[in-house]
Each structure stands twice: as C-alpha cells, then as structure tokens.
Amino acid sequence: MTTTPSGTVDTLRFATAGSVDDGKSTLVGRLLHDSKSVLADQLEAVERASANRGQEGPDLALLTDGLRAEREQGITIDVAYRYFATPRRRFILADTPGHVQYTRNMVTGASTAELTVILVDARNGVVEQTRRHAAIAALLRVPHVVLAVNKMDLVGYREPVFATIAEEFTAYATELGIPGWGSGGNPQEKWCTAIPISALAGDNVVEPSATMDWYGGPTVLEHLEAVRTTGSPSREPMRFPVQYVTRPRTAEHPDYRGYAGQIASGTLRVGERIAVLPSGRTTTISGIDLLGEPVDVARAPQSVTVLLSADLDVGRGDLIAPAGAPPAPVRDVVATVCHVADEPLVPGRRVLLKHTTRTVQAVVKDIPSRLTLDDLSRHPDPGRLVANDIGTVVLRTAEPIACDAYAECRRTGAFILIDPADGTTLTAGMVDGRPPS
Length: 437
Prior knowledge:
By secondary structure, the protein is an alpha+beta fold. The chain is built from 7 helices and 23 strands. 17% of the residues lie in helices and 32% in strands.
C-alpha cells in the first residue's frame, strides 16, 4: 500500500494528454471500469447512450465526456475531472482536450498534477501535439510522465512499432533536458515510462495483455499505484499568501484580527519569526486557528487563520514567509510562459499579473525568445506570442511581488496574465528565477 508518513493512503493527481482521437477518454473510462470505480447506474447510462448511437458495446469514453458537445463529436473539449480509488491509492485525474486550440486546458490540468499520461496513436507515432504536451509537462515540472502508446491492436501488437515510438520520444525527452528517461524498471527513478496499450481492448491498462508477452513492464494502473510522489508541500519553505482579513468584532472576540488563507508550502508554527511581504516588516506568529480550534502547528495545504503578535498593516495579497529566508520582492520578472489567448501577446502590452492572492498591474517589456517545438531551438526576438506559443517574457510590475523560482516552488513560482479590460486569461507563466538580461 502506498501511504503517507502518517500511515494514511495517499493521493496521486494526474492528467491525460494527447492528440485528438488518440483515445484519452477511452483510457480513462477503461481505468474506471476495470478498477471497479463505476457505479451501476453510471454504466447503465453509458450503455444506453452507446446503444442510441448504434454501438454494439458500451463506449467507455462517455464516462468522462460529460458535455453534450463532446458526446456528439466524440472528443473532449473541457477538462473533465474524475475521482477514484484502489486499495493502494486514491486518484484525482484530469482528462484534458487534444485539439491544439485547447492546449490552455492541458496547462490547467497539468499545473497541479504529479504525473501526466501522454497518449500516442501507434499508427501515427509522435506528432506535434505529442511534443507540445511533453514540453508543457517538462516546463510545468510535472515529476512523472507515462508515454501510453495506444491502439496497439490496430498495428497487430507489433513490438517494433512500440520500440520505434518509444525511441523517438526518448530522444525528444533527452533534448528537453529530462534525466533518467526509459521504460520498464523502477518507476520511481525516471521521468517517463513507456507502456504499450489498447484502451479499447483493455490491454495493459488494468490487466496485463495476453497478446503482448514481449512487454514485461507494469500496466498503467500498476504504475500509477507504484510511482513515488514528490512528497508533501509541507517540506518546502513556508509560504502563506493572505487571502482575507478576519475581524468578527463580537462580544467574545472584540479585538480578534486574523489573516486567513491556504498554506501554499511549508509549515507554520506558533512563536515562529516571520516577515510580511512585500513590506518586509517582521513579527511572530501568536496563534493559529484551524477549523475554529487553536493549534500549534499547521502544514500545507491546510487552510488556516494566522494571528500575529504585532499590529501590522497586512491585507489580501501579502505573503507571510520565514523572517530568516523570505523571497525577495521584485518588480522585474523573467518567466517562461504558455500563451493561451487568441489575441497575440506583444511587447508594451499592459496586463494584470495574478500571483497567489495578489494582483498587480504590469507591462510586457520584452519577448526575448519563442520555443520551436520541432527541435527545441529558441527563436530570438519573435515580436509576439500567439495562441499556444511557449516563450520567454520580461515583465515589469507596478508593485513588487514576492515570488520564488517555479523550479523551487510551483505554487509561488506560478502566475497568470489577465486582460484588464475583460478579465480574460492571456498567459500562464512560470518564474525562471534569473535576473533580466
């Protein structure tokens, strides 16, 4: 059983990605069905819907394709979240779209994932969307990737087909700078594991395939159950973004002033010396309330209310961090971004930058480069980023923000750019952690 240090069964968040019609939803449906995670009435509804469409058997993709437009087209448009469990582990999965124009949804699904399953149609091999999804998974620092070579039944379950695709993806993963890529062996030591499957027939999804005896590695579910998670965010440096100031002003609590929010990373302790950023003023934690009860210690990702010894000017958007090692507030930010809006991002564009609970005005100073997905080269001075482009941007904020490098802390190293006119999300960004050139 995969357990946490406290002895409880842990949870793995993972996302699926791939090109259109590679079988993502069918794979997820097969996982749910074969792991006995589908209720009887859900299965009956899928069987009825499949029969109405003239299909002989149940279309397991319908277990995740919930939108009417998706069911009619047989594709995934939105991110479909599903929850299931086995005796060894709990799972939260995000089934993301395959169309290029919905790459933004893949960014959403993978941003909190610890593993991404990238599907490849065995007939088509590695295509541009495969490379795009692999690059995004690497940029988002997703700790593990499963390369699921699907529809092996349509290529006669031939090992050379699988080996060729795995080799090509190996080369691309190496260019991405990901260490320890490979298939089989110890799933805890590699960024990516390749598994040949047929989601439609169920080969190597939950049960081992009887037709691919040349493959000796884990099934998809076995790998999901065995892969090592990165560990609790409570082991990272303490970061507490303030979301709300609590002032009940009741007879019982006439002078109560607490700062509520979710601990992004690390551990809060009563008596700890802290700094409030971006002001930099310091004090100590005098109390922590968790679910209405005082506690001495709280850990990420718990939601708590923090009380401070000094009466400081603290509000939404401020960040509480250890006084001895706080992140330095900055106004110049260099970041790797994935542009998700239809309107191009250009230098000089004024935007809103949302980082944790803080939103500030900013301007795009420069776009030094754009990533070319075919060979991972950097195209200098592209002049703009269009939808689904990945590139480097330099931002100047009107007010300082206290951020970490994304490689060190995903929660406080991530941000989004917003159109101030209509609130549209423009860009998802990851702080590079190096000063502007």
